[in-house]
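Mods, move this if it's the wrong board.
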Amino acid sequence: MRDTASELVMHSMNFLGVPYRRGGNSNDTGFDCSGFTRHIFESTLGLVLPRRAEEQATTAGLLPIQRNELRPGDLVFFNTMRRTFSHVGIYVGDDKFIHAPRTGALVRVEDMSDGYWSKRFTGARRAELANAATTLPAVR
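Not the wrong board. Structure tokens:
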């Protein structure tokens, strides 16, 4: 399991510098936050996440975890649009995460202890690797 999480994080680093694009889901055209996480999880684990950050946060098969339990490869969620789970990234370790931040920006690593991100953290989820190579349904 540890090797798979490391592989996921290393794979995500290959996309540093890819531009943000609303609705984007490829390195050729750019990513938005949930398109980025969806692409990384599918290409690394074979796990097809729902398209939107909010849906990823409520997906059956992803385990809710506390911030102090974070491990590389976990999904981290933030309230950036006045609603919980409106932004998502991938935890890479050492209180940092990789994500596609916003229009005009590039995929990058940021520090979760930074005031902006620290105040907006709303939760984290961990993939059960037994669900790899499957499509996870959103919980309604």
